[in-house]
Queue: 2 jobs
Job 1
Amino acid sequence: MPGDGIGPEVVAQARRIAEALVPDVQIEEGLVGGASFDAHGTPLTDETLDRARKASAVLLGAVGGPRWTATARDKRPEAGLLALRKGLDVFANLRPAFCFPALVDASSLKKDRVEGLDLMIVRELTGGVYFGQPRGIDEEGGLRRGYDTAIYTHPEVERVARIAFDIARGRNGRVTSVEKSNVMESGLFWRQEVTLAHAELGAGVELAHMYADACAMELVRAPKQFDVILADNLFGDILSDAAAMLTGSIGMLPSASLGAPGTPGLYEPVHGSAPDIAGQGIANPCAAILSLEMALRWSLGKEKAADTLLAAVGKALDRGARTRDLGGDLSTRAMADAVLNAL
Ligand SMILES: NC(=O)C1=CN([C@@H]2O[C@H](COP(=O)(O)OP(=O)(O)OC[C@H]3O[C@@H](n4cnc5c(N)ncnc54)[C@H](O)[C@@H]3O)[C@@H](O)[C@H]2O)C=CC1
Ligand SMILES: CC(C)CC(=O)C(=O)O
Ligand SMILES: [Mg+2]
């Protein structure tokens, strides 16, 4: 589901790589976001959602753009993406941030802070303030106001905490749960629930808690202290964009969104539709290519192909392949060619 802006540009390159690497995987395309709104008057049709549910994995580019900012909220491209995430019930969004050795100098931080960096943000994706009701912009007692509701339930926190603990067990065994329990009831609830879940499901995992604002600071000060960061929908969104700059560019960051076992995962770059560079053929396709890599690993049972692809991206970077965001001048297609050559 290529979506809007640079979405189709980067997904086209991931598709070329999929066709070369795993030719047995059948690929079909669907519209989402502004592209779907323009064609069907809605950012996600029931038919497309049904097809996504029947797939083994969904690879999405990005949605949104200035053309649709005046569109009604529930018809905007971003609403289509939220509906897709909710419709697939992909509640755990895995956002790894690791620094390829060749990109240590492209990071916003000094070399010693990011060399060997490998952290995983586990972001709750289908609840919290992005979905809570009531929400709106209206008027009460002559006062115009805008409001959202940050709300989490016991099962919502428990299921994503379980995933964070499982993932930590396969890594360095440490989870840092972030919230703002000092000022938010939903944050205090999050901390209590994660603590309870840890007692029940967190054997072998060390759990720490941190306020989200402090975590933002620590991500920049000393990012290698983290193994797995567990966050709600809003804080996970913000912290993962911050983590992007540790790795060199937001154009490098993939994500996997997982639901119950046996259901399709949703794979998408962390970045958006980048209207400022859309149509120029200069977007970095690596986040989309690495999202394909995560799909191979987490949904398609092709771990070996995933390892090969990850190594090929590293090799292309080692050989100096760089798009503009990484300080080079390769086009989107030429960057994908470099990965294909390395493959
Ligand atoms: N998952 C999604 O579909 C997301 C969609 N959006 C939507 O995207 C639109 C633009 O949002 P922004 O805040 O500008 O975020 P953005 O991530 O699209 O762009 C932020 C900056 O990063 C650059 N950038 C992003 N991806 C890049 C890539 N692959 N290669 C090189 N440079 C890249 C852009 O050129 C821009 O300067 C909005 O409509 C927003 O709602 C934003 C974030 C996620
Ligand atoms: C719905 C998206 C536009 C929110 C976002 O920025 C993200 O999921 O990364
Ligand atoms: Mg975001």
Job 2
Amino acid sequence: MPKDIRVKICGLTRAQDMEAAVSAGASFVGLVFFPKSPRHVEIATARKLALTVPPGVAKVALTVNAEDALLDAILGEVPLDILQLHGSESPERMAAVRSRSGLPVMKAVGVAEAADLAALDTYGRVADMLLVDAKPPKGAALPGGNGLAFDWRLLTGRRWPVPWMLAGGLEAGNVAEAIRLTGAPMVDVSSGVESAPGLKDAARIAAFVQAAQS
Ligand SMILES: O=C(O)c1ccccc1NCC(=O)[C@H](O)[C@H](O)COP(=O)(O)O
């Protein structure tokens, strides 16, 4: 019987990719505001993409240690539902962003080993949602979207008092196993549904959503 797993497709840069994510049944769509990323979108582009998203699909803006000026510029133009903080934002900064924006905040936490799990407990007390992602390798240019998985067994028995998503190296071929091992109620993918960095593939998106929900 299909499970009620919700999917976030992150790093959408083109209208056809947004359409593919929505048609495939994504519950969340992510727009990356980080110029070093191949998935970065300018604010005007993000606005156009966001305006095509139907009600019921949550539009997530992803920033990395963004200052207020950037957040205000994004929020002033782009209709959004959730802010994803993907840098080293402290719990205090996160709370400040939430009250400035009036939006729920999802904090991304990188995991590579058991010692990384403490941060999930900390942010799980203050964030509205958690994104449990793979920790980027040392020296990586990007803090996320690296197509790298972590040992999902680290999450066995771990739960937090807020909704959470699993991310990191997921693709159609491994997402069902990742859900089985972690009990994740939601999953997030970027590289695993691309044909090249920043360019999504409609068939891969559809296969991913189907595999996650099968
Ligand atoms: O995707 C990016 O380019 C990116 C850049 C800077 C910070 C975060 C970024 N992505 C974060 C995400 O939410 C990704 O979907 C998540 O890390 C999973 O990525 P992947 O392993 O490629 O599926």
